[in-house]
């Protein structure tokens, strides 16, 4: 197995975001490309990373599975500059990571057995609401809600998308069709801000965020670019209404 990425910034950032949720993952490489699916230890969220074969300038692989400690991988990837290329090559029980720049550097990462059961990211879920919006607008709304609470509500009402937190104090942001693409039915569902804050960090790398949700349903968040898809699934928070 040997992969080369000429612009590894998005891959590096994606690994950093996933490491906020899980410590160890299986990285799968097959004829279609590279993928990761993982569930956080609390079984509250799920993440999927897909990088198609076309994103790599060199791609040599059969069906490989790499068990890695994300914290260790993240530390190595932080050494990759914006102008560098990244080469990943499996050799026996370790992953050789080569950084090609003005000076070539070489790291080795020990591969591990990841005990967690393999899961598929659920593509069959149906949602009554789909929002496509500016990523920074979503980040700002989540940050507003964190000022007053640890959870927020996603509300569809009269064709508008509302993000709202209510405790002793409150925060509320309202989007119309002028600020976001809204294809949705009326609903009201509540999610953890701790997880939303982790997910929306990806928005700094993607101009648009796609949100899909429904009453008493998980939230799906998609970040999509030409060479990388990053998706999150978050269980609804069940508690007393705002």
Task: Describe it.
This protein has four helices and 18 strands. Helix content is 16%, strand content 45%. The mean pLDDT is 95. It has two domains: 2-110, DNA Polymerase III, Chain A, domain 2 (Roll); 129-234, DNA Polymerase III, Chain A, domain 2. The radius of gyration is 19 Å and the shape is elongated. Strand 12 and strand 13 form a beta hairpin. The strands form three sheets. It has a nine-stranded antiparallel sheet with strand order 6-2-3-4-18-17-16-10-14. It has helices at residues 9-19, 70-77, 135-146, 193-200; strands spanning 2-5, 24-30, 33-39, 45-52, 58-60, 64-69, 85-91, 94-100, 105-110, 129-134, 151-157, 160-166, 170-175, 180-184, 187-192, 208-213, 219-224, 229-234.
The helix/strand class is: alpha+beta
CATH-defined superfamily of the largest domain: DNA Polymerase III, subunit A, domain 2
Strand content: over 45%
DSSP, total strands: 18
Strand order of the largest sheet: 6-2-3-4-18-17-16-10-14
Low-pLDDT parts are: none
Write down the overall geometry: elongated
**If classified by CATH, what would the architecture of the largest domain be?**
Roll
Major β-sheet profile: 9 strands, antiparallel
